[in-house]
Design a protein that fits this description.
Helices cover 35% and strands 16% of the residues. By secondary structure, the protein is of the alpha+beta class. It folds into two domains: 93 residues, 2-Layer Sandwich (Zincin-like); 65 residues, no CATH class. The structure holds zinc ion (2 copies). One zinc ion binds next to loops.
Length: 181
């Protein structure tokens, strides 16, 4: 999905922001920033810095509504510090055409789905069979106790963290049993 700030919608929102500021006399016009890192949060307002930051993953409807929401925070200014969504903010939200509610039930509609659940490698030392879980595997990574001559750790699996850890723990249990007997 293309980040919204790379689309024509972003330019339409720039214009909307300028129009609204013009109509209500907000000067200077707040700086509009876009963040690709905001995958859960729709938008943020920084009244003291006069900055509005929107998630790059909003759909056009969300972006317009969030822009109006955040502009209401700018309009409320420092007075909103203690109760960001208090009566003063609500008045501005209604005036500026944003739903006068604290937050939307949904996150950014186009946020990329994280693949975090399948992010681990299960590695094994070719000499002693030691098992490790790693997020990233450097080329030539070896088991320090066995030394580089034993060979690089072998990639045995890539799976969910839960499965990789249970695979790693299995040998630890086996080792303990061997030591005990
Ligand atoms: Zn808010
Ligand atoms: Zn080893």
């Amino acid at each position: 999905m293309q980040p919204l700030n790379e689309t024509a919608t972003a330019r339409a929102l720039d214009k909307l922001l300028i129009d609204l500021c013009d109509r209500y006399g907000f000067k200077p016009v707040p700086k509009l920033e876009w963040s690709k890192r905001m995958v859960k949060t729709l938008g943020l307002a920084y009244p003291t810095k006069n900055v509005i930051r929107l998630s790059a993953w909003l759909n056009p409807e969300q972006a317009e509504s969030t822009l109006r929401h955040e502009l209401a925070h700018i309009a409320t200014g420092k007075n909103g510090a203690r109760h960001p969504h208090g009566p003063q903010w609500k008045k501005w939200a209604i005036e500026l055409g944003a739903p006068p509610v604290r937050a939307s039930a949904n996150g950014p509609a186009n946020a990329p789905v994280r693949k975090a659940t399948y992010s681990l490698w299960g590695l094994e030392c070719p000499k002693c069979g030691l098992r490790l879980a790693r997020k990233r595997v450097r080329k030539g990574l070896y088991h320090r106790d066995c030394g580089p001559k034993a060979g690089s750790l072998v990639r045995r699996m890539k799976d969910t963290a839960e499965r990789v850890y249970s695979w790693v723990l299995r040998t630890l249990d086996e080792t303990k049993t061997n030591e005990a007997s």
